[in-house]
Amino acid sequence: MNLIQLRAMARLKLPQAPASVISDANQLIIFNNGVLEITRETKCLPGYSEFDTEKDVMEYDLTTKASSYLCPLDEDLMKVYYYNGSKYTELEIVTLSYLDEDFSDWQTADSGDPERCVLLGDTLYLHPRPASTIVKGIKLFHCKKPTPMDTASNIYPWNGATEIIRLSPYHTVVLDYYEKEAFEILDINDPASARRSRATQKYLDKILWMKAKIREDINMMLLKSKEARLEIPSYGESIF
Q1: For residues 111 and 129, is the Cβ–Cβ distance under 8 A?
Q2: How far is CA 119 from the centre of its chain?
């Protein structure tokens, strides 16, 4: 479903919110906010970023080093690798408390090849700090930011110029987000709005369904791997 189709469906579903109430420009803002929130909640856009290590630098701001970074993936998919110039080594992902307890001098320790890391907010900490600058010394697997839709070439949710077929069944979740937000606007002076409550609950139910289906796909992939033997839970029928 492209932007034109999303617009048409949104106007059909909500005749109470014509363009005179929610303009096309504001509708687009709501759509993009929805895709971003849905991506964050479901982690439906896995990918990776690579960036350089810097000699004796421990902290790396992912906002600038990995511009596509949105949030971590689930624990079994979140990976960080260090490249020393000839081979990759997976880093152990730990907490600051772990470093404080097991490596009390971690903030002042000598540099070397990193063996572990901490992901705190948008900052990646390496321990030990790298002893040298290496091009693309870090490969970080994470959930990516979606490409915002616009009225030019980026007309599809999530990927912009081209549609991600895997995610096409979830375009209706974007419409559910829009419906929830539209009723927030329409019923701003009605704190007990029943239709707003229904729309919000429907959206939250769809998020849970989408998360379950995406996790089901991941479990199937892991099951096929020689390195994983996971039991696939049953999530029942689609709620659409």
Answers
A1: yes
A2: 15
**Token pair 């971590």: residue:** 72
Residue 80 and residue 122 share a domain:
yes
229 falls within a domain: no
**pLDDT at site 106:** 94
**Nearest alpha carbon to residue 141 among 90, 98, 85, 211:** 90
Q: Is residue 239 part of a domain?
A: no
Residues 6+ apart with CB under 8 A from 90: 79, 80, 81
Tokens 């849905």, located at residue? 38
Could you give the number of structural domains in the chain?
2
Regarding whether 140 and 54 lie in a shared domain, the answer is yes
What does residue 215 show for φ and ψ, rounded to 5 degrees? Answer: -65, -35
In a domain, 181, yes or no: yes
How many whole angstroms from its chain centre is CA 20? 33
DSSP 67: T
Same structural domain, 91 and 7:
no
Instruction: Using alpha carbons only, give the angle 183, 2, 202 rounded to the nearest 5 degrees.
Output: 35
Environment class of 228 (CB within 10 Å of its CB; exposed 0-12, middle 13-18, buried 19+): exposed
Q: Which domain holds residue 20?
A: 3-43+149-224
Q: Within a domain: residue 233?
A: no
- The pTM of the full predicted model, rounded to 2 decimals, is 0.88
Q: What SS3 state is found at 167? A: helix
Res 60 pLDDT > 80: yes
